[in-house]
Write a structure and sequence with these properties.
The protein folds into two domains: about 350 residues, ABC transporter type 1, transmembrane domain (ABC transporter transmembrane region fold); about 240 residues, 3-Layer(aba) Sandwich (Rossmann fold). Helix 2 packs parallel to helix 7. The relative contact order is 0.08. It has 21 helices and ten strands. The chain is about 60% helix and about 10% strand. The protein is α/β, with parallel strands linked by helices. The mean pLDDT is about 80.
Amino acid sequence: MKDFIELYRYTFSYRYRAIMVIVYNLLFVVFNLLSLILFIPFLQVIFKPEVNTAYTSPKWTGNWSEVFSYLKDSYNFFMQELVKNDPKEALLFVCLSVLVAFILKNLFRYAAVWHQSELRMAVVRDIRDQLFLKALILPLSYYSDERRGDLMSRMNNDVGEIEIAVVSVLELVYREPIAIVINVVTLFYLSPELTFVSFILLPVSAFVISRIGKSLKRTAKQSQEQLGLLSSSIEEGLNGIRVIKAFNAIHQVYESFKKVNLIHQKLVTKAFRKRDLSPILNETLGAMVMLALVWFGGSIILDENDPNRLTGEVFLTFIIVFSQLLRPIQGIATNIAFLNKAKASQDRINQVLNAEEKIVEQAHPISLSSFEKSVVLDDVSFKYKDEFVLQNIDLSINKGKTIALVGESGSGKSTLGDLLPRFYDVTSGEIKIDDLPIQQYSIRDVRAQIGIVSQESILFNSSVRENIAFGMPDATMEEIKRAAKVAHADEFIQQLENGYDTQIGERGNKLSGGQKQRLSIARAVLKNPAILILDEATSALDTESEKVVQDALEELMKGRTTIVIAHRLSTVRKADEIIVLSKGKIAERGTHKSLLENKGIYYNMCSLQGIVD
């Protein structure tokens, strides 16, 4: 029930559209029934005219409770007189009346669909917006546990199931029940006896459909989860295409993909079969009821000794109206199947929307407009899950100083760099900026003071200009060019096909490694951060590119507080202090010269790289 209420809330997030859909669907139901019952008076006239009831012109008494009886009697009298005068004219009038009713019915149905299409896509857009925003807000630790392909599957395929459910909710609550009520009232009016007989098998139908619905939800959830694995498999294959080809692993990767794809195909097929079985069973049960009615009603008609026996025209009308009753009942069965399938997707969407935001900003954060004194790490420890990655780190970085973090892979260098902009929060201890813990500041303000240039240049499929001005859309062209010149990027940008308006492709794949890194540096220059984090900024470059990028980095570092994370120790000689990390702890600290004199870990690392002076 909770899932249904949430789907209902999604549907009525656009109340006007939802109400319009309900109103037009109601009019559709009314005119659908009206298009059928308009035949009744004519049938009563042409069936056995010798026993027809003679209608008299009714008189309006002013009692509004009798309005329907008055309208019915007026129409019956009108048809009676019309048939007496000219039966063919009466037939033409009925046909035209039914045609008008059919046209209005379909106009109202289209009006409902017109508003419905706006409603369903607006809801989908909002949910996808929420999911994407949540994905941006969630901490980096979330992405170490979840597959990106699965997250993309939730944003696309699971949200698509919610789109279908939005329509199903309106039809299930407002259209089909109203249609059933109107048709049932009409059936009772025509023949209570036959109506009771027709309801014998309906509880059986409801039980069967509910059992199928529960089973469908389980299968649908499994198929959606498998689709997430399939999306991840596709993403990994396309991203790793160079390595796959280089290691002749096409067949291996293809066979792995085929297995995942086969499991997905079987689960989806199973879900479709269960979903489609519900309306088929419902229609079969309805046909059984219909045949029972034909036998039972036919027996009443043929029994000439029964004073209450049905007339042929009433029985025929009853069968026609009852056939229309099956459509909304089948619609309920179909919509329930859609809702059960959507509930599985809804659960997966809610897993993301309700995921814990571990990096939480306090209710009234302090503004950090500028960096004035120092960054202090006070007894900082951190772990991702069970084992500590950093332990008891004490470090003070005064404004304008350059600190280098070195050590073997896995020693915690990059993790320490991720703690300062609050990509993660410390497990214990405190990180302070200007004597206050960073948790007391606005996250946005903290990150505004920090610029990051990492080993992997993260660029976007847009123009050079837009990539440099990323996060700063109001930057002028003069400011962008100035930043590019500081980053030694202006020269190669001018040589591109469209200069600063050149599209650089997905992840900047139209540029070389050095060019991409210089764009990243230009982006950091434009941001003009007080604190700079350089995370292996030159380690992936060739010697020539490294020299150009290193010159750009030195320009960027001027006058800034800088944390340099490096494997190539030649880039950290000029640092004011070098911190040597080993197994998450500070093993050594000092200047390049003093650490070489100690002949410890740092000395050994320098020796391996041929740096002993």
